[in-house]
Amino acid sequence: MGRFKNNKKSRVIVKPISKKNQEDVSHVTGDKIPKSFVFSRMKLPPSVRQLQMDLRKLMLPYTALSLKEKKRNTLRDFLNVSGPMGVTHFLMLSKTATALNLRVARTPQGPTLTFKIHQYSLASDIAQSQLRPRCPPDLFKSPPLIVLSGFGSQELHLKLATIMFQNIFPSIDINTVKLSTCQRLVLLNYNKDTKLIDFRHYSIRLQPVGVSRRIRKFVQNHQVPDLRNLQDVSDFVTKAGYGSESEGDEEAATVTLSSDLGRVNKGATKSAVKLQEIGPRMTMQLVKVEEGLCTGGIIFSEYENVDGKKENVKKKKDEEADEEEEEDSEEEEEGGEGSEEDGEDMDEDFED
């Protein structure tokens, strides 16, 4: 007897994305807030699996952090689950023997952008390389800001990449946005010479200008300072702490706050903007754009362009070789005619 297929094994196990304090519709544009799935349909090495978890954490709070996929799951399974949950984007990692790829797709009908990851660093690697890694507990309660640099080209595939990354995070209104929600920043920098995209993830931190490190720590932490080696309380206030009191006082890195932010940064005062990388970090290249969801016509392919260039060079070389052969044959024909005339003149001389 044949075995009956158990459909329960092919289901995708996922916890709900939306929480009670989350909105489904943006108050800025009136559109649905973009939500995402980050998954893979194949077995990944441990380091790539950790990269997948870092990407899920980056996409918080509008993503499924506890998404569990199985090898038997198909793309249709994820698509069926994404509809009722309002998921708008898929981020799919895949690993082959020669390359690591990241596909970013718009559900349910595409398009799909495929990026080849040349280099990557995990969030743990970034934290280990820093003297004071920073990751407060409320850092991932709000979505990150998105900054695109170098994408001002008129090429179609770069325009699609710009639209895709702009719509993968919720829109903001600079007039009504709360400063407390601007905690993270995602930066994508495109190099037109190398065609590589630098992907960086930062945390945003504000420091009041003109306030020493000692005072900031005292106000933020409410800890009793150590005054044993000081003669007077004024020494604690006037003495510079670690670094200098003018740390981060450059005009290019300062902003004037419109409202209070925390215990130290007050409205109508200048604060220095600090960016600290929290990872993950990637260097990737856009290699293919498809019309549908991992299917359909190919709008752009980096490999076809390279092959086309090689074919054009080969055609030019063949044409040049054909032209040289034609020139050589013409010269041989002219040379043959001249030899026949010389032979006739020689015969006339012999006859004379």
From TrEMBL:
This is Peter Pan-like protein. Pfam families: Brix (PF04427). Residues 309-319 have a biased composition (Basic and acidic residues). InterPro entries: Brix, PPAN-like. Residues 34-295 form the Brix domain. Residues 320-352 have a biased composition (Acidic residues). It comes from the Eukaryota. SMART domains: Brix. The gene is LOC104739137. Residues 309-352 are annotated as: Disordered. PROSITE patterns: BRIX (PS50833). PANTHER family: PETER PAN-RELATED (PTHR12661), SUPPRESSOR OF SWI4 1 HOMOLOG (PTHR12661:SF5).
